[in-house]
Amino acid sequence: MVAQARGASGDRRKWIIGIGAVVVVAALVIGGVIWTIADRNKTEGQVIKPGEATLGLASDITQKRDGVAVTVGKPGAKATIDVYADFLCPICGEFEKRYKGGIEQAINDGKLQVRYHMVPLLTQRSSPPGYSLDSANAALAAADAGKFLQFHDALFANQPEEGKRGYDKTQLIELGKNVGITDPAFAQTVTAGTYDQQLDAAFQQIETDPKLAQDFGGGQRGFGTPTVTANGSIVSWQDPDWLAKVIG
Length: 248
Hints:
membrane, two-stranded antiparallel sheet, disulfide bond, Thioredoxin-like_fold, 6-stranded mixed β-sheet, Membrane protein
C-alpha cells in the first residue's frame, strides 16, 4: 500500500511538472509571437525624422522631376551619374551611408548632377506589401515641391527593414511637412499614388535593359539595386575611388 501510494504520488508530481512545462512552453511561444509581431511592426506610429544633411544645399541647385527620374545639381555640371535605388533595399542604404557626403559635396561644388531613379524592386518585400512603390511615388511628389533630396535623405536615414513594415502614406505625408513641403498637392499625390503606374512601367523597362544588367555570380545575371551608371556604363561603386574617377 505504501509503495502504491508513493507511486501514485510520483505520477502526480510528474503530471504536475508536465503541465507546468507545457504552460512555460506556451508562454514562451506566445511571448515570442508577440515580440515578433511588435518587431515586424516597429515603424507603426513612428515619426520619420528629417535626415541630417551632410551639407546644406546651395541656393542655385535645382531639383527637377523628369518623368519618374529626378535630377539634382547645378546647371552646367561636367559630370552626370544615374543612381537606381529602392528605399527598402538595405544595400542601397549602405551605399547612401558611404557615399552621400561625397556625392552632395560634388553637387554643391557644381561638379556633378545626379539623376535619381526610385525603383520599386522590393514592393512585395515589406509587410504589408507596397512600401517601395509608395515611397517612390512620395519622393516624386516631394520633387514636385522642390524637396526631393531632403525627403530622399530622410527615408534612407530612417530606413525600415526588408521583410517588415515600411511607412504608410500618412507617415510619408507627415515627413513631407517636416521637410518643409506646404503645397497640398503633395499629400494628394501621395494618397492617390499618382505616379504608381509610371513607376511600374519604368521598372519593367529598367529590369530588362541589357545595359543595366550585371553578373551576380553563380550564372546569375540581371538588374539589381543599387546600380550606378556614368556615360551609359555601369560604375563599380564598390571601388572607393569611383566618384573621384567620375568627376575627374
